[in-house]
Structure formats: structure tokens, C-alpha cells
Amino acid sequence: MEASIDIEALNQQIKIDSAFVDELRKETSKIVVGQKNMVDKLLIGLLTDGHILLEGLPGLAKTLTVNTLSKAINASFQRIQFTPDLLPSDIIGTMIYNPATNAFSVQKGPIFANFILADEINRAPAKVQSALLEAMQEKQVTIGKESFLLEKPFLVLATQNPIDQEGTYPLPEAQTDRFMLKIKIDYPTVEEERIVMRRSLDKSFEQEISPIISKDVIVKAKESVSKIYMDEKIEQYILDIVFSTRNPENFGLSNLKPLINFGGSPRATINLAKAAKATAFLNGRAFVIPEDVRSIAKEVLRHRIGISYEAESENITQEHIIDRILNTVQVP
């Protein structure tokens, strides 16, 4: 009985702490048409200190969405266009010699912002990719002999081209594993695109995004997310899903064994649990339900499962494999 009272009290607190979510969605919708899924996934990344890999065609409002969200929470935003000639110092910064003072001073790079849009990350060579990924992991960068902490909150949204295009450097599995979520963005609906078309033709249409919350609200919300209750049965459900990507034969999925080269790492388990908690928070709930796990499973797992040549020859994707797992693993 005492536990249920605690849960009820926590539920009331979470509803209060998550009240800003609907306000953020409403504010961003003034500028961004549709893309609710991308906005929610960006919030999940923000609330869990995770970073996001985005796969989508040009012109689907990726930059606009991130920039709009940063304005709504009064945060700084930087877009970095990755190119083959980019250097690590172009991202993190470098030491500049000042002849007047006969000394070197630090020139910080664009990485020092709350929201970083790393556009076409696989256009840049490996040393540039690793410079960004190190900053993502350590939340700090070293310039010369001095280390600098990055601003909080700190979210990297990296967009990636299809790897079969010329002039790209595909991210190795070890590096994609550092991204909490991989989101795939599709075209808008007919009605959404009609609104976009009308707005672009209407010269009188002008909307300004107001900073409706502060960065401190996000920091406080992170603490609330960590308090969300997760039952042991939900924990086991998450473990079963991830372990079934490694040893599918143990879960009645022997037919998947020849299709998978490698399954999700322990980061998959950790991130699936964190993302499920953040999903519950976005829904104003103080406890995780199986649907929270299922709703975010593809985004957490699709870049952590390596498919075999046999799967590719049969046009079986990571999404197909995850669907089979979710349809087979017993739901608590």
C-alpha cells in the first residue's frame, strides 16, 4: 500500500514537471508542420543526455526543427556542415597566436552550443567524426593543454546520407553505437505539405518562436525522468528484447539466427531503459509500461543490429527483424 501511495505522489509530481512538454510541442508547431515524432525524439535525447542519428531525405525540416526547439527553450544552436576537407579544429576550436601579446589564446569552435546539427556527418573523414563523437561521449573538449566542459543541456543531431552514395565515409558500428537513437524521417502527408506550400507562398505569414521555458527546466526534468519507476518485469522485458537480437534461438526465433551478424550491445539495454523512462515522462506518467518500450525499440535498436548477406539478399531489414522480435517476445 505504501508503495502505491509513493507511486501516486510521484505520478502527480511528474504531471507537474512534464507540463512544459505540451507547451513546447505547441510552440514548435507554429513553425514546423508535422514532424511530431522528430520533436518527441529530440526531447527524449535531451532528457536522457543521448544523441540522435537522423536518416532522411533533404528538405524534411531537420535544421528548422532543431533550430525552432532550441529557440523555444532559450538555448544556443549551431549547424556544422560536414565536408571532406573539414578538420577537427573546425569543430572543437584551436589555439590562435596573437602577435600583440606574443601569446596564444583559445578560439572555441561551434561545438560550444546546446544544440549541434552535424549535417551529413558521413561526408567527413574518420578523424573529424571521432572528434565529434569524443565530445559527445566525454561532454568536454581539449584545446591545447586546457580542457573545457560543454554547455548543458548538450544534444547532437547528426544527419547521415545513404552509405551507397559516392564521397561518403560510413560510420563504423562502434561509432553509431554511441548514438542513443536512430530516427528515420519520411515525407509529410498531403495535408501537411499543403500547409507548408501555403505558408511559403504567403508573404504575410510570419511567426516568431518565444522562449517559453529555460534550460534549467530541462535540467530539472532530467532529474524527474531518473525517478520514474520501472518494474522488474519491464526490466526483464527490455533484457529479453536485447538478448533476442544476440541469441534469437533462445526466444523461439531460430529463423532469425542466419539473418543477424551481431546484436545489440549493453548500450542498447541501457538506452532502451532510459528512452522508455523518458517516453513515460513525455506522457505525464511516473511509471514505465510495455508500450513505452515497444514505441521506442526501433529507434534504439535499428543501428545496433548487423544483418547478414543472407538477410540483404532477401531484402530483410533491421526493422523487419525488430518487428519479429516484438511480436514474439512475451509482453509482461
Q: Would you mind describing this structure in some detail?
A:
With 332 residues, the protein is α/β, with parallel strands linked by helices. Helix content is 47%, strand content 15%. The protein has two domains: 180 residues, 3-Layer(aba) Sandwich (Rossmann fold); 100 residues, Helicase, Ruva Protein, domain 3, CATH 1.10.8. It is built from 14 helices and eleven strands. The strands form four sheets. The protein has a five-stranded parallel sheet. Strands 3-4 form a two-stranded antiparallel sheet. The longest helix is centred in the C-terminal third of the chain and has 17 residues.
The geometry reads as globular
- SSE arrangement, N to C: HHHEHEHEEEHEEEHEHHHEHHEHH
Which strand order does the major sheet show?
Answer: 2-5-8-1-9
Computed over alpha carbons, the radius of gyration is: 21 Å
CATH homologous superfamily descriptor of the largest domain:
P-loop containing nucleotide triphosphate hydrolases
Write the layout of secondary structure elements.
Elements (H helix, E strand, L loop, with lengths): L1 H16 L2 H9 L7 H13 L3 E5 L5 H11 L4 E5 L6 H5 E6 L4 E6 L6 E5 L6 H13 L1 E4 L2 E4 L5 E5 L13 H4 L4 E5 L4 H12 L13 H13 L4 H15 L13 E3 L3 H17 L7 H12 L4 E2 L1 H5 L4 H11 L4
Parallel strand pairs: 1-8, 1-9, 2-5, 5-8
Antiparallel strand pairs: 3-4, 6-7, 10-11
Helix pairs in contact: 1-9, 3-11, 10-11, 11-12, 12-14
